[in-house]
Amino acid sequence: MKSISFDNTKIADGFWKEKQDMVKNSTVDAVYNRFCDTHRFDALSCTWKEGDPDMPHIFWDSDVAKWIEGAAYVLTEERDEKLEAIIDDAVDKIVKNSDENGYFNSHFLVTEQDKRFKDRNNHELYCAGHFIEAAIAYNNATGKDKLLKAMCRYADYIYKVFKEDNTAAFTTPGHPEIELALVKLYKATGEKKYSELSKYFIDEHGAAENERDSNLFDWVNELYNQDEMPLRERSTAEGHCVRALYLYCGMADIAEQYNDTELLEACKRLFDDMVNKKMYISGGVGSTHIGEAFTVPYYLPNRTAYNETCAAIAMALFCKRMQNLDINSKYADVAERAIYNGFLSGVSMDGKAFFYENPLQIDTEFNNVNRSTKTKERFPITQRVEVFYCSCCPPNVVRFIPSIADLMYSCDEDAVYVHQYMNSETEYEGIHISQTTDYPASGKIHISCTAPQKQIAVRIPAWCENYKINAEYEIKNGYAYISMNGGIDIDIELDMPVVCVKANSRVHENAGRIAVMRGPVLYCAEGVDNGADLPTVAIDTSAEFVLEACDFILPSMTVAAYKEKASDELYSKAGDDYEEFTLKLIPYYAFANRGETDMQVWFLRK
Description:
The protein contains 14 helices and 22 strands. The protein is α+β, with helices and mostly antiparallel strands.
């Protein structure tokens, strides 16, 4: 199965065009400016010395690299001299300051030189992986290969240190990411040793004796980084969510490259464990800030949900790989859930501010309940900010939205697969696909396809119970297979009613509650529209939901609901305590764009 890259697709209009324009016209500059303010770009000069402020952090290079990668994706659509000049200057500094082996890390080149590749948690390989991805992206966008050559030299050195000489103090990355980057580098250069090094890291992860019995930190155990067993034996997702999902992406890549069915089966088990037991309705993962981690099955608290923006991105990236390895619509379904909800809530509507965490409930009145102590209970922030101390999420937004079409298509000898619906034009190896749609505002999609393949397979989302296709089709694993004779025009209509969704009974946090979705989009209520005490709101699931135009691209909606009557009594006899009112709901991704206010996703069921 071949994945059709985003650079073969032009998104012409609609939902994701608006988001891509937002990144191009706002987010790229906003993130760059904050990274200049915080001296992340200055660090590339490697001039810092003891006593200077703002010592380069061990993960700053990854922030810069992701920004370069995202900026390169913007350049894929339209060249920009100003943007290229910024990247070229950064590349010149990286090349100039790389050591004689090709090693570059803005922290370890100016301090702690004796600790290079000595501490597994120092993010050196993680930063290298992101620089590799940036180098490939910039070369593809502009034909400028200076950074790519530098990163090949660096990757050669990593290969020598880790696979040939075994001189590093650890065997596999503390923060996975280079595994998937090395496979990309192999595909870009044809140099087999890069995929071999990725395979080595995957094979040794959880198997290396010097790592199985040692922890990255003194406050975690071996589950934190999937270290307690070899990866082919894994069945459960554990520990730090982003580290885990980047690692699973690497596993999927190696499973594909080496036709490793054992590794693929492990990936399938891990996907099912996450999606069926540990994923929020938003497609987000990570139910605790402690370790930014997965927890036990069905523990999905709403107010303290971590749901890191990067984790939602990583989930979508894993799904993309799995949909090419195992033809089943469940992967594209989860990717869709993540991109419209758990990921997109991580960036403000103007593209300038970000959430690291994405909770499913905000109750501002009770965020500071103990006025007599300096130590407070911890809740996610209620307003997006422009930069974080650990600012991995903003540049991840910069690189993910311009490349969102990576999730759309794949093909094999027999069929062209349509995984996501976006208004777009695609050209790839004799395949031409045109989609005309305002999805997900509605479920109406027109697809025109000419291709040498015999069939086109279009995904029928799991949320869609009724649909129409103006052609004969056969449903297999969630895809409608339609015969083509060189080409076809088809109209698809996915029925998109508002649906009330319940959680598994084991999710005790949501007992007796429902959430509201329309198509792939999750909705929420905010205090700014509905007043206080949102946790007492009950929705009559038989009531009519009325769609209304709003400022958040997709429609808002109203529905008759009930709220508990206010009272001065702390306790009173239960009775007919509710009064009817009109509840307003907005897309979840748009919450917290109108000032600090309460927010609720799960409502009582009337």
